[in-house]
Every structure is written in structure tokens, then in C-alpha cells.
Design a protein that fits this description.
alpha+beta, conserved putative lor/sdh protein from methanococcus maripaludis s2 fold, OB fold (Dihydrolipoamide Acetyltransferase, E2P), Helix Hairpins, 6-stranded antiparallel barrel, about 25% helix, about 35% strand
Length: about 375
């Protein structure tokens, strides 16, 4: 009898337990979060471009003459003026060649005087009919030959003097001397690097603009609106903003086939010489961005330099969408064609969401515009 009651009780407990077990296909509970409906807008935004910084004038100073360095007339880091002597090279042979060429000029001048006198003498004889007229023609030809020899001698002297002048290496423009490669007594070959000279009173920052941004801003200019700016800012490698404003001067005439960008140049004054040749920095432009979406920073997840938002579709399911920011304004990212007008994104609380989660709209918080359903 006891066994019958025990068996019946077990059946009752089993029945109750099976009634309380949740169904496998029960509906998943929806998460209530603020949603933001995307509306395109136009805004001015600061966009940064990695820049290559160069001196406005930079040259490698190379020898045009072979010889031993007799004197180094400047020091590393010294400011020099245009034409100032930098190095003196031994030039004994060149000096002898100049002296020989000068003597050849003097000899040719004497030959010319002699032939002219001879021509005058022959002219008198011709007039007296002592000699034939052809003798005068020969005398005049000798004068022309002497003139040509003199011109050749003068050209040779000029060439020798130029060669000798190359023994003194001078500054091609005003600037600052960099490292001196060779020391006193070193032998120099023609074309050998001796130092470099840079003029950094102004610096040139080269940066690349995407073809899309370039064409968009050119269209704005043609429409009479503000397009590509005429000024730029420079951010230094330590993150600080350079105190001087730069001027955008020119652009290249073609797009790079590999990157699809076009290079622009901005000039920055650098009287205090803070910036150096081949410094690193970032050029900042303020560009007009059309039909972009402003996405709150709280709505964005960053993973390995990639950016994601949760887009909630008409089925109320959250799906991850990757995008590349076009810039930032305050606490908002600027997003382009990766998102579509009218779509809804989760504005806050993204860490509590997984892809495929069901989400319903809650009240907007901290300035985000919640989408009403």
C-alpha cells in the first residue's frame, strides 16, 4: 500500500515539474534602449591629413672640382648668405692652367696687332701699285685668322677661370649649413657630397586629399559656396597646434593612380625655425561635408582600429554595421555612405547588446534624438 502512494506522489511531482519548465521556442525578451533616426546634414569639419614637411629651399652641396680640402670656412648649423664661401680646395694645377691661358690671350692679342699692321702696309703698296690687289686680300684674311685665335684664347681663359672658381665652394642661397660630411685635408672628387644647405624661414607641408573630397569642394566653389579653404593649420608630432596659420598655395595636376589622391601644398612661416626639414606633422583643413550623419560617440564600438554601430531594422533586430569616420565634431563621429538616411541606430548602451538582439525604442538621453515607433 505504501508503495502505491509513493508511486502516485512521484507522478504528481513529475507532472508539476513538466508544467513549470519553459518552452524552447518562447519569445526572447526585447531590450529597451534609446534609438537614433539618422538624418543627413551639412557641416564644416576639421579633417586631418598626414603631411611631409620640407624646407622651402634645400640643396645638396657637391664639389664641382677635384682636390684636397684646404679650408672649411663655415661650421655646422651656421647661417650663411648667398654666395658666401663654404670650402676652399687646393687648385695648384688649375691656377697654372689659368696663367697659361692668360699668356695665350696676350700672345693672340700681339699676333692680331701684327697682322693689322701688315695689312695696313700691304694696303699702301696696293695703292702704289707695287703689289697686286690679291696681296691685300691675303693680308685681310690673316687679320681675320688672328681675331679668331684671340677669341679662342679668351674662351679657353674663361673656361680655366671657371674651373679655378669651382675650387671655392659657395652657398647657392641664404640658409643654414647642416652636417659637414668631409673634414680638413680630405680629398674630394667632382660630384662628391660635402654638406647640405636648407632655408627654413618658411616650410612647405605636402599632404594628399582624396579625389572625392577634392571634387566635392571644387563643385562647391563653382556653385559660389565655400569649398577648399585657403588656409590650414599644422599639428606637430607632439600633438600641439603650431602657432602660425599656413596658406594653401598649389595642387598637383594629376591624381595618384594607386591611392586615388591628389597632393596639395601649404606654406607656413617659420621665422623662429622651430620646424625643420623632413619634420613630421598633420595638416588640418576645415572642409564642408555634405549629406553626412552625426553619430554619437556613445553609439560607437571600436575594435582593432575599426568602428561599428548597431543598426536596428524593421524586425527590431540589432545588426552590426562597420564604418570609417570622415572626422569628428565634438562627441560625434561623421559617417558617410556606410549608413542610410532613415535608418535607426542604438544611441546608448551598446555594450549590453549582441548582434541579433531584439531592441525596442526607449526615451532619448543626453541630446540624442530617439526614434519613435
Amino acid at each position: 500500500m505504501f508503495q502505491k502512494y509513493l508511486l502516485a506522489g512521484g507522478l504528481v511531482l513529475l507532472t508539476l515539474a513538466s508544467c513549470n519548465r519553459p518552452e524552447k521556442n518562447a519569445a526572447v525578451e526585447a531590450i529597451s534602449l534609446p534609438l537614433l533616426k539618422l538624418v543627413p546634414t551639412d557641416t564644416a569639419v576639421d579633417i586631418d591629413y598626414v603631411a611631409d614637411i620640407h624646407a622651402q629651399n634645400y640643396v645638396e652641396v657637391r664639389a664641382r672640382f677635384g682636390g684636397m680640402i684646404e679650408a672649411i670656412l663655415v661650421d655646422e648649423g651656421q647661417r650663411v648668405r648667398k654666395g658666401q664661401p663654404l670650402f676652399k680646395l687646393s687648385a695648384t694645377e688649375a691656377e697654372a692652367a689659368v696663367a697659361s691661358a692668360r699668356a695665350s690671350v696676350q700672345l693672340a692679342e700681339a699676333e692680331l696687332r701684327k697682322t693689322k699692321l701688315e695689312a695696313q702696309r700691304v694696303l699702301g703698296l696696293v695703292k702704289s701699285k707695287v703689289v697686286a690687289a690679291t696681296e691685300q686680300q691675303l693680308a685681310e684674311a690673316e687679320v681675320e685668322i688672328a681675331k679668331a685665335k684671340l677669341q679662342d684664347a679668351k674662351s679657353n681663359l674663361l673656361s680655366r677661370e671657371n674651373q679655378l672658381s669651382f675650387s671655392v665652394v659657395t652657398a647657392p642661397f641664404a640658409g643654414r649649413i647642416n652636417r659637414i660630411v668631409l673634414k680638413m685635408g680630405a680629398m674630394v672628387e667632382p660630384g662628391q657630397l660635402m654638406t647640405t644647405l636648407s632655408d627654413i624661414s618658411n616650410i612647405l607641408a605636402y599632404f594628399s586629399l582624396s579625389e572625392k573630397d577634392y571634387l566635392e569642394n571644387r563643385r562647391l566653389l563653382r556653385a559660389g559656396e565655400e569649398g577648399l579653404p585657403s588656409t590650414a593649420q599644422l599639428i606637430l608630432s607632439d600633438g600641439t597646434l603650431y602657432e602660425k596659420i599656413g596658406t594653401i598655395e598649389t595642387a598637383e595636376t594629376e591624381f595618384d593612380e594607386e591611392t586615388g589622391t591628389i597632393a596639395l601644398r601649404a606654406r607656413f612661416p617659420n621665422q623662429n625655425e622651430l620646424l625643420k626639414h623632413r619634420s613630421s606633422g598633420v595638416v588640418r583643413l576645415q572642409l564642408i561635408q555634405r549629406n553626412i550623419f552625426m553619430v554619437p560617440q556613445k553609439a560607437v564600438q571600436e575594435l582593432q582600429d575599426k568602428y561599428f554601430v548597431y543598426v536596428v531594422g524593421s524586425n527590431q533586430l540589432a545588426m552590426l554595421r562597420a564604418f570609417k569616420p570622415k572626422g569628428r565634431v565634438g562627441s560625434y563621429y561623421l559617417v558617410g555612405e556606410e549608413l542610410q538616411a532613415g535608418e535607426q541606430i542604438i544611441a546608448e548602451g551598446v555594450l549590453s547588446v549582441r548582434e541579433g538582439s531584439k531592441v525596442v525604442a526607449a526615451t532619448a538621453v543626453q541630446g540624442t534624438q530617439a526614434a519613435k515607433q
